[in-house]
Amino acid sequence: MFHRIILKDLRKWSQKKDRKPLVIRGARQVGKTSLVHTFGEEFEQYLYLNLELPADRQPFVQFISMETLLDALFFIKNKSSAKRTNTLIFIDEIQACPKAFQILRYFLEQSPEIAVIAAGSLLETIFRPDISFPVGRVEFMVLRPVSFPEFLAALGEESALQQLENIPLKDYAQGKLLQLFHSYALIGGMPEIVKTYAETRDLSSLATIYDGLLSTYSDDVEKYARNEQQVQIIRHVIRSGFSEAGKRIKFQGFGNSSYGSRDIGEAIRTLEKTMLFALVYPVTGSRLPLAPDYKKAPRLQALDTGMMNFALGLQKEIIGTDDLSKIYRGTLIEHLCGQEILALQQRAIGGLNFWVREKKASDAEVDFILPFEGKLVPVEVKSGKEGKLRSLHQYMEEAPHTLAVRLYAGGLSISSAKTPSGKIYRLLNLPYFLASQVEGYLTWFTENTQVV
Description:
There is one protein chain. This protein is α/β, with parallel strands linked by helices. Helix content is 40%, strand content 16%. It is built from 18 helices and 14 strands. The protein has helices spanning 4-14, 32-40, 54-61, 66-76, 98-110, 148-154, 158-164, 174-187, 191-200, 207-219, 221-224, 228-244, 261-274, 305-312, 315-318, 331-343, 390-398, 438-448; strands at 22-25, 45-50, 87-92, 115-119, 139-142, 277-280, 299-302, 355-357, 364-366, 368-372, 375-381, 403-408, 413-418, 424-431. The strands form 4 sheets. Strands 2-3-4-1-5 form a 5-stranded parallel sheet, sandwiched between helices.
């Protein structure tokens, strides 16, 4: 079962006393519908509505009152309207009827006993000024591609999954987990890809699925572009975006084009609504609160590293490597670690953060910054000795604590590092396949090591 962690969160949501309708956001093909279908099996009654179908959409279009709507929904789905307390209504493809999004508030106000989930493709396109947004009456959850723990579960690698989630990691488990993580790095986390690989273990059978996924996003352009010129610009960004993923970018001339900064910026932000790409802006401070600097060049994060590998032809390089840091000048493993960190974030607001210092002759950049117990903990994705962690040293010079993390191809260890000025800090070295477990290891580290 994909998204087993999210399934646990859905159960917690359904048991809340003050439960609100839940809107699941996520890119196309990340498994939103399959997830809710599985969750629906836990209810006495499950009503599935696809608002792209006229029959399912009509009761919302003709909405008069909540009672009339519910009578119509239970009738067309041949369910009992008398049994509402253990019923889940799933409103899929809700973007096909923006009025349905407005009606969600009435489920909370007039029928709170019914569990309601909504989802859809290009959902962000209905968040417009002319649409009345039910502020405070719905809650959101973000669904992302399959994480490494979920990948292991899909492959039936239950013992490997158990060892991955066992803190601290046993030495004997590292070799197998590293090998499996390299497979995950190659394939990525799109559910259809993972499902096919789990069933066939045949990499050659995946090419047509990758092609289909990329074509789907390209074909969707006309649904959210405002004119033909923007259609062309957005398609250019999709074609060029994977080669820029994991890097800091400039809008002007993006992807070796003649397009200007304004056009590219608007196109990328439009694609952000589809969650195919995301702009990650850097922070410059080492203390809370996190304050991204939108004047500095952002980093581009793509939806899925497996799709990036396919688009760039990196798959053959990954097969047989002993260190993913050697692939694509380290960009691949940095991007994948970012994807792993994001995979465990279900909040509607959230994302990745990285740190920069831009000064003459002393530029520095730390791959990720994680809020943890009031600290902003730096996370570097690197191979090599501690002495090569120049940017991490510069960050720790400024940080009001002594805790840092490195993700690399080596084993679990704790070491001491020293900045150029002599500040000593503790470095938690983790195999990069533990990127999804960083928060748990930080808790373990602070409980078992004296850090300030």
